[in-house]
Amino acid sequence: MAQPLLVSAAALFNEQGQVLIAKRPLGSDQGGLWEFPGGKLAPYETGLQALRREIQEELGVEIQGARPLIKIHYTYPDKTVLLDVWRVQQFSGEPWGKEGQAIRWVSVRELSQFEFPAANRAIIRAVQLPEDYMITGDFADQSEALLRLQAALERGVRLVQLRAHHLDAEAYRQLAQSALEACKKAGASLMLNADPALLDQVDAAGIHLTGARLMAARKRPVPVGKWLGASCHDAASLQQAERVGADLVTLSPVQATASHPGQAALGWQNFQNLVNGALMPVYALGGLGPEDKNRVFGLGAQGVAGISRYW
Ligand SMILES: Nc1nc2c([nH]c(=O)n2[C@H]2C[C@H](O)[C@@H](COP(=O)(O)OP(=O)(O)OP(=O)(O)O)O2)c(=O)[nH]1
Ligand SMILES: [Mg+2]
């Protein structure tokens, strides 16, 4: 296969948390579609060097701080691109369309309303999703679960998976309804680790499929506009997640954990190789906490998911 075209691009954020998008000129590749500004690496440039140069050339701003957001290897009918996307929150200068292109600041929610090249689907998810994904752990009763949830929301958690395999369907539904109210008040998204049909009764952000539900799914089990998450452990489950249109996945166990004794750990090298082949944001799960985020960003992951260190 031909070498992929190496491209660096920036998700540039302003202080209001809006992200900058630019319109590709008509007549260019993917012309007329919106994009994250950036461009092709010159020979011998690193991704970050190309990013700095392209953002200066296209927007007239100087990047002061950037971290890896997501890498997407995507094959179009005529070419394969490797898009190396960075999250840029510190820069100097006021961006303007130096090459005559239209630019706009939009909220991350609004991003879904603009037309982007096909490779950008996963990038948009990565821009919209937070760095931490809390999975609920043990609790004695509903009130303890809600207290722990409330405390986590106050610590800043914005994506929560309600995992409670010991509850029957009715007890789970009741807890999910209360958890949803708490999450909505905090501006957080709630993922139900449950039968996708429960979304008809509990208007949560989405469904997180267990490994077994993922492998049994034939098509995307949730409507557009809801998130679909899935638990992956290897290349086959990542491929299946891609096939059913998952928006995000957890990949585990990166390290051995007390909650899943006896499961062999992937280790960092396998984790990185699997993330490189994934076409959606990947959360590292298994024995990790917030202090591991910088390491996992460097390996191409969205962030860290966890029970023990978050619950
Ligand atoms: N910059 C950017 N390119 C994208 C995005 N999504 C996507 O599929 N691409 C593709 C389109 C192009 O084939 C390639 C980027 O090339 P480019 O045209 O921006 O390269 P460049 O800025 O160096 O442009 P030029 O010097 O060739 O005019 O990656 C995106 O969000 N941003
Ligand atoms: Mg460009």
UniProtKB/TrEMBL annotation:
Record's keyword annotation contains Hydrolase: yes
Domain of life: Bacteria
Reactions the enzyme catalyzes: 8-oxo-dGTP + H2O = 8-oxo-dGMP + diphosphate + H(+); 8-oxo-GTP + H2O = 8-oxo-GMP + diphosphate + H(+)
EC number: 3.6.1.55
One term of GO molecular function: hydrolase activity
Family annotation (CDD domains): NUDIX_MutT_NudA_like (cd03425), TMP_TenI (cd00564)
EC primary class: hydrolase
Ranges for domain Nudix hydrolase: 3-131
Keyword set, alphabetical order: DNA damage, DNA repair, DNA replication, Hydrolase, Magnesium, Metal-binding, Mutator protein
The keyword Magnesium is annotated on this UniProt entry: yes
Cofactor requirements of the protein: Mg(2+)
InterPro entries documented for this protein: Aldolase_TIM (IPR013785), Mutator_MutT (IPR003561), MutT-like (IPR047127), MutY_C (IPR029119), NUDIX_hydrolase-like_dom_sf (IPR015797), NUDIX_hydrolase_CS (IPR020084), NUDIX_hydrolase_dom (IPR000086), ThiamineP_synth_sf (IPR036206)
Family under the similarity heading: Belongs to the Nudix hydrolase family.
PANTHER family reported for this sequence: 8-OXO-DGTP DIPHOSPHATASE, NUDIX HYDROLASE FAMILY PROTEIN
Protein name: 8-oxo-dGTP diphosphatase
Species lineage: Bacteria, Pseudomonadati, Pseudomonadota, Gammaproteobacteria, Oceanospirillales
